[in-house]
Write a structure and sequence with these properties.
The protein has 142 residues and is mainly alpha-helical. It has helices spanning 2-30, 32-56, 73-79, 83-93, 98-105, 109-123, 128-137; strands at 61-64, 67-70. A two-stranded antiparallel ribbon has the order 1-2. It is elongated, with a radius of gyration of 29 Å.
Length: 142
Amino acid sequence: MKRIIIFYGIALAVLVFLLKQLEYRFFIHDLSIEFYVGIIAFFFTVLGGWVGYRLTQREIVIVRSGNAFQLDPIQLEKLGISKREHEVLELMAKGLSNQEIADKLFVSLNTIKTHISNLFLKLEVSRRTQAVKKAKELQLIP
């Protein structure tokens, strides 16, 4: 009984394989350009996603004039500063205006003002220069 089941199983597998090959040949013959364009589009979509992911990863250690800067994630968590607020703080330390920061991060000017207001509250300061100074003291920015 086992031999009959195995024989029929193998015969059905070979038949399915042959039918799939036949279907594949007709598919490629009828839709060859669309099929290859689809494969290329899928490849570039996956490649673009991978490259975008690699480019958007952030480095935590920044080398500045021979000294290594190490971000203190405990301070970030303790103060409750979000990733986006930290990005705004870094750009603020570089001397960018609110509009320049908004353009660089692709958000509205009001969003940047809200982030800066939140940073002032969390860092307990009232000016941009004070915020940058305190953030450097707490090792939040280089």
